[in-house]
Amino acid sequence: SVVSEWESKDVGDWIVALGLGKYRESFVREEIDGHRLLSIAAHPTDAHRRSLRVTRDDWTVLRKELKLLVGLSNLPGCSAPHVEDETTSTSERETGHDEE
Question: Which residues contact 66 (CB under 8 A, 6 or more apart)?
Answer without folding.
Answer: 37, 40, 41, 44
